[in-house]
Amino acid sequence: MIIDCHGHYTTAPEAHTQWRQAQKAAFADGTAPPPYPSIGDDDIRASIAGGQLKLMGERGVDATIFSPRASAMEHHVGDEAASALWAEVSNDLIARVVSLFPGRFAGVCQLPQVPGLPVERAVPELRRCVEQLGFVGVNLNPDPSGGYWSAPPLTDRFWYPLYEVLCALDVPAMVHVSAVANPVFHATGSHYLNADTTAFMQLLQGDLFTDFPELRLIIPHGGGAVPYHWGRFRGLADMLGRPPLDQAVMGNVFFDTCVYHQPGIDLLFEVIESRSILFGSEMIGAVRGIDPQTGHYFDDTRRYVDALHLPPEVAAQVYEHNARRVYPRLDTRLTGST
User: Fold this and answer.
1) Kind and range of the H or E element at 135?
2) Which residues of 136-162 are buried (b: 16+ CB within 10 A; e: fewer)?
3) Rounded CA gap, 27 and 49, in Å?
4) What are the tens digits of pLDDT across the range 257-313?
5) Which of 47, 165, 174, 175 is such that its CA lies 20 to 30 A from the CA of 139?
6) DSSP-based three-state secondary structure for 264
């Protein structure tokens, strides 16, 4: 079985996206948002069947771990009430996708994070999504300010109330930022990769996994700059008097394969142990076009992994078993679970 650990609902029905624009406009005007629209099952089916499901079939992907569109989380927009409502309707839409395509998708939730507010205010939505909707994980934004990095590092006790619940529920978090408000950053070209790299460095500097040995974090987009500069991070750990990375960090941190060229995938697998790599593509996401050098879609990451000719047991680990280990609730969501 091939499980894609990184999918977003980038093709959500237009009515959902239009309502979000109306909600933001209402917030700016100081008025109440309009009622959330009625979206039919056929609209949801059409948005998935011609997009994610079609590409999954073409690329031989059996299931996708699926969350709301990352760039649309926009934690820096609105207030606590607006963020809570936006997270709720977005997560409910993911739950409907999962129910309409059983065995093909598993839900991951968006949190109603608000800059400056305690993260435990987002815990009720996490519990609702896992305990009531059957979600298998959560997206955690380490920078809800949208590129101004006003939140404490991920190792700070500010985040501990959320980590306690993640461990109690036995669900992992993908560390994933959202849209950027700071004009010096391009969202997917710099802000996302900066955040991946920043998160890893924060974890290197702290003792988070001593306090939470069962916590599991996925750093997407191939780990940002980390594999490419692995020697730098190993050297920094030594200079800072930190334990070796394989002992202090990599037992709890995982990278996906959302790297959009063959040399990048080759490097990822050369540097990072296969037990720490989860197959992912982020289709239909940040890079949607066809690579003129290969004639294939940039985000067809299975093609790159297949080209490595991994031993069968290693390929099975990356394509399926690592995801089941990191997301243990998957087994209740996917057909053919073990």
Assistant:
1) none
2) bbbbbbbbbbbbebebebbbeeebeeb
3) 34
4) 999 999 999 999 999 999 999 999 999 978 888 999 999 989 999 999 999 999 999
5) 47
6) helix
Q: Are 248 and 236 in contact (CB under 8 A)?
A: no
pTM, whole model, 2 decimals?
Answer: 0.95
Task: Render pLDDT for 181-198 as a digit per residue (tens, 0 to 9).
Answer: 999 999 989 999 999 999
Count CA within 13 A, CB hemisphere, residue 57. 6
Residue 174 near residue 137 (C-beta atoms within 8 A): yes
Enter the DSSP assignment of 274: G
Residue whose C-alpha is closest to residue 199's, from 172, 182, 217: 217
Which SS3 state, helix, strand or coil, does residue 255 take?
Answer: strand
Taking each helix axis from N to C terminus, what angle separates 52-59 and 41-49, rounded to the nearest 10 degrees?
40
| CB of 98 closer than 8 Å to CB of 170 | no
Give the separation between CA 201 and CA 225, rounded to whole angstroms.
Answer: 10
pLDDT-above-90 percentage for the chain: 96
Q: Is residue 236 within a helix (H) or strand (E), and if so which, with residue range?
A: helix 230-239
For 167, other C-beta atoms within 10 Å of its C-beta total: 15
Domain boundaries defined on the chain: 3-332
Exposed, middle or buried, 32 (CB in 10 Å: 0-12/13-18/19+)?
A: exposed
Fold classification of 3-332 (topology level):
TIM Barrel (3.20.20)
Other C-beta atoms lying within 10 Å of the C-beta of residue 292: 6
**Cβ atoms of residues 329 and 136 within 8 Å:** yes
Query: Phi and psi of 219, rounded to 5°?
Result: -100, 115
Nearest partner of 253 among 281, 210, 219, judged by Cα: 219
Identity (one letter) of the amino acid at 135? F
Which token pair is 209? 């996994």
Question: Tell me, what amino acid is at 293?
Answer: Q
Contact 121, 112 (CB under 8 A): yes
Which of the residues are catalytic? 282
